[in-house]
Amino acid sequence: MNTFFCSDNARQVGEDLIGSATNYETYILVECPPPWTTEAFNSRWVPKNLHLLVEEINRAKLPIRFLLIANDVSHKADETTLLIYQKKHGLSYGYNKYEFHLPNIEQVAGVVKKWLSNRTADYQVYTDATRDILVCTHGSHDQCCARYGNPFYFHAANTIADLNLDHVRLWRSSHFGGHRFAPTAIDLPEARYYGVLDQETLKAILTRTGDIQCLAKVYRGWGILSSQLQVLERELIFHHGWNWFNYKVAGKILEQSLDNQTFLGEISCESPNGSLYTYQATLIKDNTKSVKLKSACNSHQESVLVKYSVANICLKSTKIATLSK
């Protein structure tokens, strides 16, 4: 019996979570009841046409993430929910949601193919505002997601019910990386990633209230930004407080050294009243924060996980919104 838990180990060494969110153009979430095999799309309820489509897209190395999702009624639902989250470009809050209710999972591959080629489908598309919280419970992929993900999911369902958050939906999800931070979650449509969660921090994230510093321990980063820019964005969260979550944001790396030790990053943002700000910062490889550890329960060897710190941050430009007469 393997008694090594990567999540316990990462907590013991005090690994900083920031910069570990992954960046995709598109998330394709397919409702499919568990159990799921180690490679989720080999699972028994996944039809062959969908399995082949996922393999084809992975081989082409397209920036598309397929995930299986389920909730407590998925196994008895008489339809299959398909969610496609498409990244917005320019200043944005994250992703646009396109939701389909299909007669069964066999229809998913055809709808996805058609959608990816021309953004149309033969089924009604729902775009109403929802907040989809994905919690990784994929224990066959990594035992920490069963050990920590499952109980967290169970209690999170109660937390959401207690808060009467009608527009928030909770899903079990297949593996999306960072199981050493279990329990780990993605908050869509923004695609902010969190780890080492507990119910108190979940409550703060859902309601955007309480001490913003609680994010220092649980925030993995915003999936619309590169890993180095995620470090800068966290600093801006601490500077602006919860109001930052109402800002539209875009980011880019302006310069990087040949050895990837330093980056010049820029984040532009638009406040709720229409004011525009541009921040720049130097991001430097931080040897004091970089750690060497096994990144998964079944890893045979340790990996060096490079971390970055913000060396300086300055407000480069501002354009304050003026009230038109």
CATH superfamily of the largest domain: Glutaredoxin
- Unreliable parts: none
State Rg. 20 Å
Label the overall shape. Answer: globular
Tell me the structural class: alpha+beta
Secondary-structure element series: HEHEEEHEHEEEHHEHEEEEEE
> How far is it from the N-terminal to the C-terminal residue, by CA?
71 Å
Helix fraction bin = 10-25%
CATH overall fold name of the largest domain: Glutaredoxin
- Number of domain units: 2
What is the top-level CATH class of the largest domain? Alpha Beta
Bin the strand percentage.
25-35%
Q: Order of strands across the widest beta sheet? A: 4-3-1-2-6-5-7-8-9
CATH architecture of the largest domain: 3-Layer(aba) Sandwich
DSSP helical segment count: 7
Q: Which whole number gives the mean pLDDT?
A: 90
User: Biggest sheet, open or closed, and with what strands and sense?
Assistant: 9 strands, mixed
Number of β-strand runs: 15
